[in-house]
Amino acid sequence: MGNKELTYASAISELEAIVNEIESGEVDVDILAGKVKRASELIRFCNVRLKGTQDEVNRILIDIEEKEVISENGCEE
The whole model's pTM is what? Predict the structure, then answer.
């Protein structure tokens, strides 16, 4: 159940499989808590990955804007 090779896509896929199992009633009561715990871990992983990606995109956009301002200021002189 480790996150050794986990990607966002594989986490979403595994999460969807767990949800489908639970919704269909296929999960034995004895392992339900483990499935819910794993789903919680996957949700946490996805949230962290999304936040990291959002932060990275924001940094890139700020960098682009700063370069445009520098470029515009350089052309005006």
Answer: 0.75
